[in-house]
## 1
Amino acid sequence: MKLSVINSNNILWKTNQLFIVLADKNNLSPFLKKWQNFTGNHINQIIENSNFSFAFSQSILLRSSKTSLMLLGHGSKQRSNLDYEKLGGILFSKIDKLEFKKITILCNLKISGKKESLILSKLLFGFKLKSYSFLKYKEKKKEDLLKIENINIVAKEKKTLLPLLNLNNDIISGIFFSKDLTFEPPNFLTPVEFVNQITSLKEFGIEIEVLNEKQMNDLGMYALLGVGQGSSKKSYLVIMKWNGKPSSKNNMAFVGKGVCFDSGGLSLKTSRGMIDMKEDMGGAGIVVGAMKAIALQKLKKNVIGVVGLVENMPSSNAQRPGDIVKSMSGKTIEILNTDAEGRLVLADALYYTIKNFKPDFVIDLATLTGAIISALGKERAGLFSNDENLSQTIFQIGEKIENLVWKMPMDKIYGQNMLSKIADLKNIGSVAGSSIQAAAFLENFVGKTPWAHLDVAGVVWCDQKSDTHSGGATGWGVRLLFEIAKNKYRF
Ligand code: BES
Ligand code: ZN
Ligand code: ZN
């Protein structure tokens, strides 16, 4: 889809295309009159004979042999940015079924050029989000299925619209990258292939460092290494560095769980429980997608992204329930369930990140527990934090962009369930409150650094469609991290 911004004098009347006009009842502008003169159709009459009332997201399609027109209702009420994003998604669904190669979108509202640019950019954000599909393994490719080739945006103020469209593109690139990774099957996206995918971000100026098993062994990362031990696939830790403000020592860190497939290990999952386990790298996918968006936008911040990439498999070499491993922090962990592996990966990834980069704050993202889905469903991620300020920031940004989270308790008592009789910690507690106990386990590895843990098990994948999502990997969290990086701390 090629996007061009034009002004109203440059509208190409002669071509067969679909004009989409966002309009309310009151001011059918000269544009509509022009269209009327051009096609000979009498819009008012057609509208009067229909049940189109200009209500928000309602539409009417006026087909003509010369060029066609879709009126998209705005209604008289003021709308939020999110409303416009959703409207963009709804618009995509409406016209995806039609055969138009060229479309022209314009606003017929009495608003300033600045406001118009904002509305158009939000509309296009939702439109693009909804256009995503993962067709790599289908015979019919995206190019065959997507009919729209050109989109013209008619804008009063090109100069305010263009940066907003650039921002859209960069965030969407990050979201789509993240979706692609989560959609990929686990026989393709093995840990080493995940490393290759991340390495492609070098071209955007991200520094990439890859630790292999030998290097992790030398660092004492036996908690992480123990998880990958049963798999024939090698484990990796990848560090991504975006140095957007070299003059500053401050930085923030995002850490992701990248279990490319979670069979449960010797504590094997049921076949039902295993079906979705390619998505167990979703936390790492969010971090990688956000790093891409951050680099594309060249944010003037220093951001570290770290992902632990492993495969959790049963084999004669696999970690056993009963094993005790030493983490990089020096704390020993009794493994009582090899399916509680994400926290083991994060224990070393978090400790490594904090020790090496001393970030101002760290956020980890992990598809950590099935219990968070029971608690919060597919709507919100669980938020656990030792820092009220950080947790408020995440919550508020999340509300704005609908990457929703919900704060969970972190009372000290939960941590006591994670103390082992014969090691410093054990990797499972009791069944009740297991998401909170998992977070309490992680807290042992972050020291005093402001830290938040997002349990994203419910939100990285959603089969249900929404206005801006067509089912599958959601891309949840990419924009959340991007906005946090952009807005938190003015260093
Ligand atoms: N990857 C799973 C959690 C998960 C479940 C993610 C469903 C997405 C959808 C995690 O490694 C796991 O198996 N957790 C166990 C922990 C338990 C053994 C304490 C769980 O949630 O059952
Ligand atoms: Zn597991
Ligand atoms: Zn897992």
Note: The longest helix spans residues 158-183.
## 2
Amino acid sequence: MKTRIFLPYLILLIIIASGCGSNPPHPYQPLNETILTPKPPATPRINGPSVYGVRPGSPFIYRIPCTGDRPIHFQAINLPAGLTLNGSTGIITGRLETSGKYMLQIEAKNTSGGDSREFTIVAGDTLALTPPMGWNSWYIHYDRISDSLMRQAADQMIETGMADFGYQYVNIDDCWMVKVNPGDPDGDSKTRSEDGKLLTNEKFPDMYALTEYIHGKGLKAGTYISPGPTTCAGYAGSYGHEHQDAETFAEWGFDFLKYDWCSYGRLADPVSTEDYIKPYRQMWQFLRSLDRDIVLNLCQYGMGDVWTWGGEVGNCWRTTGDLGLEENRELPGFYYIGLSNAQHWQYARPGSWNDPDYILIGWVGDANRMLTGASTLLTPDEQYSYMSMWSLMAAPLIFSGDMGRLDEFTLNVLCNHEVISVIQDPLGKQARILRQSEKDLVLVKEMVDGSYAVGIFNLEKVPSILNIHWEEMGIKGKWKLRDLWRQKDIGEYRDSFSASIMPHGVVMVSLKNN
Ligand code: GLA
């Protein structure tokens, strides 16, 4: 028994001991501490995207994500007319009247030093030029969600420092409307006022006040509904009131809408692709007629090959069923969802993203029974793999665990600025699959500066040495490698790179040309 357990480790040691060659260190053997992300320095560091899309005429709100000891003083050089920066909060607000590319320089200073970075605002047609990042209520609060839990989540996004890394959406999922009487799903439950306007349930007394609260922190607010008569949890849907609801969401001040197919399937019997597109095209057109920017998230579980048309009628589209309902098989559920999402890499681009569902780590609820929550059963290595896959896939990065119980480990997974800069890279490419086998997965993402971000995933339950060859990547010569989780340069490599990787773990590196 003992020999069986130790044999793979022994083989690994022998391989490591005999490993030599021109590349330093070969194979790379990272230290496996539990917390990998280095603490941010006291000096300001501006994080988040370098490009941001807005439509001319729409309200603008952007909180500069920046770590470092507060107070920090912010300044913006070449801030276009119509926008104002609050120097102590770093929140930019206002409205841009004319289309165009505005290049500004953002500066952040405190008593320890400063940082500055170029930031481009593109006033045009396209929102979500980089994948949206934030939090969603579903997997922790289910039908218990309330106005006060939403406000707490916004407070916690600031207090935990998540907002300083670029998380900005605070999104309500299902269950904020009135529940439709069971047995009378299309009937006369009082879900709307006399003039047809959607009513909220008693847990949401004032939607406008709620979004004002979220906006007051420089964050954005998201909501949810179905194109069908009821949502997946049986609350009022938009069917027959789509235009009015789009206007109501704008009036209430929402910035993001998840539009969930759910009961629409009872009305439509889709045969053609156009049947699948129809409700989304309609909502997309209504949203675009508003003078408010609302990012549209399609949620229809990948039907009708949504990746081939989702970008025409929305900003991101779920490619699979619910991650939280996925059973663990040989591998934890996120691998199956991630592997399925990874296949559609050609379709992702700025403004249009494949969405493999939320980041379910930390303290999360069981979706099968809509329970309150428990600590994730994923190992630390599995959580690094999860976050690495989502980053390489340029996925919307929406955490859906308990914001009130974020521990140091979970925050270290969610808040590594080098990993996040892979998601937020302005080129907007999703990683292609370089290799996929029973043993390993290699994802390669092209970055705007000509570098590559590479994730080498060990799918086995034992440690393995895995490698990548320049030839299979289509590159040549010497490349500088950096371990992104540990934020450490690891040397110059020629022709290939190999690393010793923990069970179900990952090594995520960047390759920069000399
Ligand atoms: C569907 C969606 C989930 C969640 C629930 C809410 O299952 O896929 O993400 O929004 O509905 O009822």
Note: The longest helix spans residues 2-18.
